[in-house]
Amino acid sequence: MQDTPLQVLPYSVQPDGEGFIIGSPRSGKFLSVPGDVVEILAAFKAGRSPAAVHADYLQRHGEAPDLDDLIAVLTGYGILATGAEAPSATAPRRGHFDRLVTPALGRLLWNRFTLAAMAAVVLAAVVVLWREPSLLPGWRALYFPNETALQLLGVMLLGMASTFVHEMAHLSAARAAGVSCRFSIGNQLWFVVWYTDMSGIWALPRERRYLPILAGPIVDLVSAALIVLVLAAARHWHWGFAPLTVSLLSALLFVYLLRILWQCYFFLRTDFYYAASNLLGCKRLLQDTEDWLRNRWARWRGRAEPVDQSALPPHERRLIPAYAAIWLGGRGLALGLLLFVQLPLFASYLFLFWETLTAPGPAQPVAVTTWLSGLLFSTLLIAGLALWARQLWPRKG
């Protein structure tokens, strides 16, 4: 047992239900631990050697701690370091936009006054919709009988831009709390998504995590409210908007409403899922539910359970069966949408494009907008399916 003190790097500790969340805000790595691990780490920080901590723990608890494994885990999470590891372990975890969106700018964007203004905009839109519900678009907002390719391309590009704004809202709210973030591109099932890695919010007290988690949906809701107000003003004050502009605004409003509905897909790692898991104190609810289902499947086949879940907190263990029903129902619904909506739509685009190319008579030039809209839609769908397939069948080795 090592008889010299360990090097303890800056770390955070936050109460989390029956345990604690500890981690390195700089590395962005966090883990849930029981209280005795926090005590051991505090002893290391006070300059006590592993041998001294081992003897003290044995005397107080009557059993020997497995300090070797604990030290290895804490070193991997950037909380402990040897002399050789210290420089890299202490390097700040810089995000792509950390210099652009400073904590000061984040606090300027997210404070009680801006939140009050956002609430006023949403309330005004609710009043307008109550008086004029016809402003609320239906699914036909995404049906373009005229200038189809141009409008589809416009909606897709506006949707991608609004997604970037959504993620910037998360990032700026997290930066307001001093948390470093990174932008990444990934997938939710077969949907390609942008997402903001803001693991550092686990270093914040539980009540301070909600704003960074919900900042994206808040901005989506405010943006949708602004579109409602613009459409209402254009209708009553006879603003000279071209029909194409009104059509695109209505379509974008419908996209915002769908995106807010998407957040209610609790069977995925959506913003509402993270807010609910934070409220319930279940940081790994989705992963633990998938492990629980994997164990049930193995038990049904007469095999050993592949995942040991004996250490799960009792309150999470009680929640998992109900959440498993949501997980299964949601995945089934999403798969049905893929098979009966997305793939047929993709096939229809391919068939239409083939008909255009092979139509009898003089060759008709294919508009650039048709090429771009079809290419963008196809690329996103194929990329999403490829990323999903990679998750289902990961490469071995």
TrEMBL record:
The entry's keywords: Membrane, Transmembrane, Transmembrane helix
TM segment ranges: 109-129, 149-165, 210-234, 240-262, 333-354, 366-389
Protein name from the UniProt record: M50 family metallopeptidase
Organism whose genome encodes this protein: Tahibacter harae
